[in-house]
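Journal club prep — side note

Before the paper discussion, L.F. wants everyone to see what a predicted structure for a comparable chain looks like in token form. Sequence:
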Amino acid sequence: MEERREQTAGVATQERQGPTDPWRLTQRGFDAARAARDETLFALANGTLGVRGALEEGDSASDGTFLSSVYEQNPIHYHERFPGFTRSTDTRVPVAEGKHIRLQFGDQPLRLSETEWLEFERTLDLEAGALHRRLRLKTPQGHTLEITARRVVPLAERALLAIRFEVASVDYTGPLALCSSIETGRQAIEQGDDPRIGVHGGKDLQVSDEHADADGARLAQRTHHSDMALVCAQQHRLSPGLIFESATAGVGRVEQRFVSTLTPSASVVIEKFVVYDDGNGTAADGVDAVLTRAQSAGFEAIAEAQAEAMRAFWQRAGLSVDGDPAAELALRFNLFHLLQSAGRDGITGTAAKGITGEGYEGHCFWDTEAFVLPVMAFTAPDVARAMLMYRYRTLDGARETARAMNHPRGALYPWRTIAGRECSAHYPSGSAAYHINAAIAYGIGLYLDASDDLDFLSEAGAEILFETARIWPQAGHFNPRLGGAFCIHEVTGPDEYTTLVNNNWYTNRMAQRHLERAVDAWSRLSAERPQALAALASRIGLDADEVVLWQRAADAMHLPVDEALGIHPQDDDFLGKPRWPFPKREGPHRPLLLDYHPLTLYRHQVCKQADVVMALVLAGDGIDAGSKRRDFDYYEAVTTHDSTLSAPVFGILASEVGQDEKAWRYFDASLRVDLDDLHGNTDHGVHMAAMAGSWLGLVQGFGGLRVADGRLAFAPTLPAAWTGYGFNLRWLGCALRVDVDARGVRYRLDEGDRLAFRHAGSEVVLTLGREAVLPLAVPTPPKATFPRVCDALVFDLDGVLTDTAHTHYRAWKRLADEIGVPFDLQVNERLKGVDRMASLEIILERASRAYTPDEKRALADTKNGYYVQEIASVGPQDLFDGVREVLDAARAAGLKLGLASASRNAPALLDKLGIADCFDYIADAGRIVRAKPDPAIFLDVAAALGVPAHRCIGVEDAAAGVEAIHAAGMAAIGIGDARALRHADAVIPRIADFDLRTFVSP
């Protein structure tokens, strides 16, 4: 095994090895170190059955097969348990493993670890929904063989795995045995101390009724505590020359053995069909019925039917990217995994890790409705409906949760669940997240907007909306101290680093929309299904007075704006907390929650993920662009993106507020979360919400799609990295195609009689087969207005008051030449506004070796020495023209002056320039632990001056500095090139053009 790892280590997927096929994820070469990750990436599923991508003829400790409905129940042990604490958790467990087909040559079993792997290739065919794999190997005896395997988990069957397995001889002559088995004994993995993953292991399932003969093999399994049972059975089709020899049935294992004789250039083929029955299907889903159909059809027919189903899906949900086949492949890969792991039977849920692994113990969370369901609503509405029917099926569990939380009426969906019971033991970031009710209401509303499915509303959706809406008046009240505003108390929003707060802005906004949707449902059913409404109202004890209360609460919802900063406060206390004081961590991404006590996190302005920003994406209509931009700038600076849910949301809002570079960066971060294992836990399963986020980033971010008042609206832009892109949408029975390139946007209606929507604010109406070609949207980043009330000016030094950039360049160049690292003016441009250590990191990107932290500090000190030598001759003559006049005018107007330079030599330089006495405060760059674009240095200056940040104006020459100023809540004036500083609120060519009357109100 070690030899094979050395031979194949570093071999990556196709897009890094040559031309990319945007329909096929191909891996050439096997890397044992990332086997678990690849088993996740190459997994197949169909919403009920999930089969990881391990090899049929091998063994892997991280392999597994799962049924979305099968879980074990484990007690939760507390030293101090209070009323309402959940008493047990459910953990998805591996079921019988049916993929194995082991090889034996005479009396020699084939052990892959003992063979030499000559060639290995596997491909996930997204277009056909199938896994293909080829392995050419040499046995310890010197024989060369080639194994070719194809695998599908068809969408058309409830729980069928179909395999075509071929063994070909290159130079071997002799006997061959294929041992096809169903095996048990795997336990749920103990997944350590990472709270994101889950910690419960557990016993393997009980096994009974093992049976094997010439016709097939089967066994039954049962859980220990959750009272679940299943049957797994297999049958085969054999190529000529391959015959049944024997069958064995032991404890927890059944096997059928087939034999043949191989000669060079000859091969044998076995088709294996494995069926699972969890008791949730119909008679047609029983193992015997499915095996009969599979045997009759054969693998090729099953694979073709799967390919046809996938072709139908891609026709409805097609997408394209011109000029970036790797991104096109990644988007399709993500959408494929969403489709195959989404619950599609109305019985089982859609877990955070799909059915591809054991992460999060197989639990469903709020992101199912907030991220995954919108993708399905726009591409596969029938799947979206089934996902919501799962929530309806578990409504009684939500009622039980509400009672446990002391709510006498209504339903509160659990934070994490499989079968409808709360499985979270940590109530501050679990049960307190009442916003899950609003997320489910959001999903229902979007599905209804997209489908106008009145039957669903009448039969299931309204009951969910009504029962969950009842919780809000119990969780909040009309606060007389705030003029009767409706306030919601002691809840946790999406940001799990801030818990148990009052008036979480996201929760309040989404609760408002939830209540409005429930009122609308009452009104619509009153008009169109009065008998159904009357029956429902009678059954749950609902009357019109309660509905009036919902509307009153929605109208009075407390949704404040902080007057000083012009942003929406995350909660009543968030903005009053200190910012996170610890330095930014270098190296691979590692969430703060793994290293800090929760209380340490709770005491600071630090966000795990989008919270207010999430509200602006899901329910941002009616909020002006300037407010959104200020929220984006502020919360971006305090968000760690420790959750994979965060990047796509920030990217979508970045597109809307004209931050195109950031929109691309966030989109790219969500696009390859699993393909590149960006969070280091793809081994445990894919990140369903992040995958959905990449599709939403394409369609809602770059495409500008929003739904407001039940209508579609678009504002498409084109990323600089692409020459074009396109996507298909389903909406109210219509099929819409949107194509975007540099010439504009082309809308085409492929199905449906008529569709009306908005493009960049203008009304568009399409009829079947007609197109509309319109110009790209041009988002105009909102700007602060001038003149404005101001009490302080905060200046950068280099490029604003004087030019020491070339001095820095000469010092860096001297150092780079000494250590043999290429460095030029182009690289130097990236150092503008960046502190010394961060600049060194940029320079060392081109180094031929790694440097230790001590070596880096020594290099930085050396550079500083060179810089000090260079500035020895600096004097007042080096001030830019107009600097003294600007500073004198500001002092005369009573403004305070501060300096926010990343240079530790700034005080000495100001002395040499003769203007040190003009400044009330000069930031100590050595004490600032976070460099620009973090706002720390500007906030430090404002605090030292005793001036609120929103009453300061920052003056900068670097884009990173402008970003830091905005993140601090200040207005920004750029000095220099208007294109490079386009995100500044105003740009002037040089400091001499700074007219105090233009920027500062009298």
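L.F.'s comment for the group: Residues 287-317 form the longest helix (31 residues). Keep this in mind when we get to the figures.
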